[in-house]
Amino acid sequence: xxxxxxxxxxxxxxxxxxxxxxxxxxxxxxxxxxxxxxxxxxxxxxxxxxxxxxxxxxxxxxxxxxxxxxxxxxxxxxxxxxxxxxxxxxxxxxxxxxxxxxxxxxxxxxxxxxxxxxxxxxxxxxxxxxxxxxxxxxxxxxxxxxxxxxxxxxxxxxxxxxxxxxxxxxxxxxxxxxxxxxxxxxxxxxxxxxxxxxxxxxxxxxxxxxxxxxxxxxxxxxxxxxxxxxxxxxxxxxxxxxxxxxxxxxxxxxxxxxxxxxxxxxxxxxxxxxxxxxxxxxxxxxxxxxxxxxxxxxxxxxxxxxxxxxxxxxxxxxxxxxxxxxxxxxxxxxxxxxxxxxxxxxxxxxxxx
Length: 353
Fold this sequence. Notes:
Layout: H1 4-16, E1 22-26, E2 36-40, E3 54-58, H2 67-76, E4 78-82, E5 86-90, H3 105-111, E6 124-127, H4 134-144, E7 148-151, H5 154-159, E8 169-172, H6 176-181, E9 187-192, H7 195-206, H8 218-224, H9 232-242, H10 245-251, H11 260-275, E10 280-284, H12 288-299, H13 320-330, H14 336-350
Parallel strand pairs: 1-2, 1-3, 6-8, 6-9, 7-8, 9-10
Antiparallel strand pairs: 3-5, 4-5
Helix pairs in contact: 2-3, 7-8, 10-11, 11-14
């Protein structure tokens, strides 16, 4: 467990909790613990806090909990520790609490969004497609709009039992179709990236030494282990998933089956239609200056500047990069994101004054 926020939370848990306690923890590569633990992940929904002596809330998975349970935590439990990522609640904590009040802002907003609503503000949703600068963009949005909520998965959004229209900004790793099915009444903004660069960035991210392997899915593990000896079918499976990530976010419906070129073609056509939808707007990661202006316009923010757009650098120069590029060139029908991105660029320049 090399990530600083996670190691700090673990140290706080040891300080505040007695041996044998019932502890609710997010999935992760935790060491052997002296507690009775229950784990949750970002695809879990409506997690119960009943019967727990300590609850380690990952703020990125906040929406996996009911709003009522978060209100109970804030009202009836003690905050033993908090940092930018975690809040540790205990029923009977040991020692003194260590946190800043600002660390609880996300929880307070989630529990009672109407309290922080912007009168006359612009309501917009941000579809965070992985490896398109979304973490930095959401940081800008959430710092300028208090009544915001971030869903870490389609499942969390679909299971949300509150009214998403009480929030001014809704963001997360969800598909537009799932958002609209929840009755979202505002507009939608998303960012697209060159598919080859996005795929290689995703692979580089999966291979980071400080990544939390306990939260990896099968595709991420496959990318982490990718090399020149990876079987053709494994590489093909990675491309099928990663090469259609942007198309799926814009167009996939819960009952769709992503299999075969016919299905991919249908998703591609739906996604291209989103580019022309009056309800949707988009930016390109390759144009950071203009992207900042678009984010500000979409969400009604005063400042056009974006935080530094995170980039995961290649620590080595593995030859699998060339392998992935050759594979994309040889089987382009597997990567509908290539077609979507070409269409997005065409519309970007046509719309220029």
